[in-house]
Amino acid sequence: ASFCLSKHDPVLDLLKHIPRIRCEKEDDRNLRQVYEGATTVGFTGELCLNLLGKSADESIFASGGNTGNHTSACFVDGRHPSGKEVFRHNPGIINHETGQKPDSDTLYCIASLLKAFVSAAIDILVQRQELSWDTTVAQVLPGYGRYDQDAMLNGMTLRDICSHRTGLYGLDEVIQGMDGRVLLPKSEVVNVVNALPKKFGFRTDFHYNNALFELAGAIIERISGFQTWGHFLKKELFDPLEMKRTTAFRSVHKTDDNIATPYTCLTDGSLCKIAPTELSADAMNACSHQFLGTNSESLLVSGHQGDVPGYTCSLYLIPKTQSAIVVLSNGTGLSDATDWIAQDILQAMYSLKPTVDFVFTAHQASILYKTTFKRLFQLPLEEHRKMGTPTPPLDDFTGEYVMENLDIATLNIKAGPETSSTGLRMRVNGLADQEYYLWHYHADVWCYLPESADQCLRRGLDRSDWTSYLISFQRDAEGQVEKLGWDMCGVSVVFYKRK
């Protein structure tokens, strides 16, 4: 989920409410043990930055959101742990039609960095002893109960949710659609979580899950009595900290004239304006270095990135010095410039060695990123395609398909005047603007990969694996199509054809 954060918000006091995973040994950490033994969980939102008198590469700020001959807006803010601001930088443009520049009151969507505030909200309730991190979902939301009656998952706790250790797959393909759309109503969150398929065993692996944080929001609402978790955040966090412009409601896009317009960068470097995300309370760096400062003293850093179509942001928290780096942007670029900037500042703050040239690295990443569409999707699909299989009659596949254990998730397959003579259309959850064109791959398998990377970028269509673009129909003993399988990040999700 996402909300808008003003750059001028004083949030140093948020540190007292921000839980994080703690481990005893910084240099010998087993991730599984860390998450299973976590005492508190989550990441933080916008905090404070202590530059320690160092200077990062100024040229990377100039190219902070650089996309060809255009620059999206970017924000970097720094404060001493005492609360004194020591650095602020507002390059770029928030609206290319008007030329409006960002200032200290400009709003940005912070995408997944919101999870920190959800965790902080839960921690407030924990401190008030209204619940605990080991409170189970079922204790708060009586409607929760797994379709498979898995006893361990039925005992899922807030600690499990916020540390992403449930092993459940989040079904982003049918929940978060193209153009930043939310495809299922908020009121169905419990039913959705009841039906989430398993990717890993419970408490055996870390697996990021957006849907479960919506469930955490529902728990906040139930315990606090507030209409939405957004209202709770305003009353209990934003107002006390005088974060007057920060909001968890999408309506701000219609009422505020100082909000960063979302853009995405196409492969030729041009900018494409896109619709603001619907993620709210009411409703990628391939060349990234695995390590910074390999020749420097070990330093524990907690980091997180936020990414929705049209917005990217990065956060690095350094507990040892009570410092943090936060970078916000209104552009989805050919690499994540906010992360490069954050890493460059981190490198300067602690004199990390050897020195990484992040401007060069960012350019190299953008070159590699332009090959992603062909390298990771087109070529593997071509390699695994069985050529020469005839296209079956289109009418064999048309109809409505309902997801197993979640009948509000549907796929409508149709042929007709809007499609070519050899293609199909797949509409997700009955939404007219969420249609994919299916072209015949082989046998009873169809593919919805668009013809170009730019088509994906314009609609915010992002998949992690080439198999996720395949829709495999299956027939019964009489040869009639009875169901389809959609591979979602290695999890086969079944939809049955409605009779």
Automatic annotation (TrEMBL):
Domain Beta-lactamase-related: from-to ranges: 83-251
Entries under Gene3D superfamilies matching the protein: DD-peptidase/beta-lactamase superfamily
Residue intervals of the Peptidase S12 Pab87-related C-terminal domain: 385-487
InterPro entries in the record: AmpC-like, Beta-lactam-related, Beta-lactam/transpept-like, Peptidase_S12_Pab87-rel_C
Family: Belongs to the peptidase S12 family.
Name this protein carries in UniProt: Beta-lactamase-related domain-containing protein
Naturally occurring in which organism (per UniProt): Colletotrichum melonis
